[in-house]
Amino acid sequence: MKSxxxxxxxxxxxxxxxxxxxxxxxxxxxxxxxxxxxxRARLVxxxxxxxxxxxxxxxxxxxxxxxxxVIWFRHKAPNDLAPEVLAWALPYEGKTIEVFHDxxxxxxxxxxxxxxxxxxxxxxxxxxxxxxxxxxxGVLKPSWSAKERLAxxxxxxxxxxxxxxxxxxxxxxxxxxxxxxxxxxxxxx
Length: 189
Ligand SMILES: [Zn+2]
Hints:
Layout: H1 2-19, E1 22-30, H2 35-50, E2 54-59, E3 69-74, E4 87-89, E5 96-100, H3 101-107, H4 112-129, H5 146-151, H6 161-186
């Protein structure tokens, strides 16, 4: 009897955890991208993260706080940047991403907003994982084939299980850091 009660309590705890998704705040600096493209990109990136229990909260960069992820949309990639690079992130700095509109546009095989959403999801993952690494498949592959870029308009790519775990760990660590910073600033006289 005791074990049945324990099982029920555990199930309740699990369902609460599912409802409460980990949140990450992301702001977009629009230098070059069309509003509709950016809207679609945000939607696709949000869908990809929702699959692993992480909610992306999009906000205006004017209202961002320390620790939020910041994405810059650049009109044109620097001339000396390797031609296959669509965007980059600074995983060890932990917040800055640059996306090059001209590069994403040149490599799209379907609707630009869909590829852009995957690029955002990929770079945000680098920042959240906090280490420079890639995976053999899925969203965190170093580059997607033409077939994958076409398919992502029908169904978004997914993170591997290992990527999802590293992302959730990173999100948890960032939330803990923010909470301790807030506690420190509240305790000031
Ligand atoms: Zn990458």
